[in-house]
Amino acid sequence: MTVRDDETTTIRAAGCVLWRRAPGGDGLEICLVHRPEYDDWSHPKGKLKRGETALAGALREVREETGQECVPGATLPTARYVVSGRPKTVAYWAAEAASGTFTPSDEVDRVRWLAPDAARARLTEPRDRTLVDALLAALHSDLT
Questions:
Q1: Are 56 and 73 in contact (CB under 8 A)?
Q2: Count of structural domains, the chain
Q3: In which domain, by residue range, is 11 found?
Q4: From CA 118, how far away is CA 73, in angstroms rounded?
Q5: CATH of the domain at 73
């Protein structure tokens, strides 16, 4: 049996933990996206295009999935897991929402802006919950 390159090559993806100051200025909110194909809640992310840098791909995915332009910040931990027998890596950044409006699509039909504890509870995958903690730690270190 011959193994094709695309069956062993790591899937490269990138995304952001998108945040904004909560209305009224008390704390912050994190944006989660709902993907109807998987019926899950996650951070905006997606596969990189050929030749695209991870940061450029992360910002593109945020724009495509949430409608938000954002300002990238600290690098967050990279997620590593297996999808359909193939290794996948997802590079993440903290990113502050700057402007934009969400438009539902077949890929993402809903977004929710939630306080960190509520976002952590809503996320489907446990590995995504650790990114909330990493975001809070990065923002705390930026403020001190």
A1: no
A2: 1
A3: 5-143
A4: 22
A5: 3.90.79.10
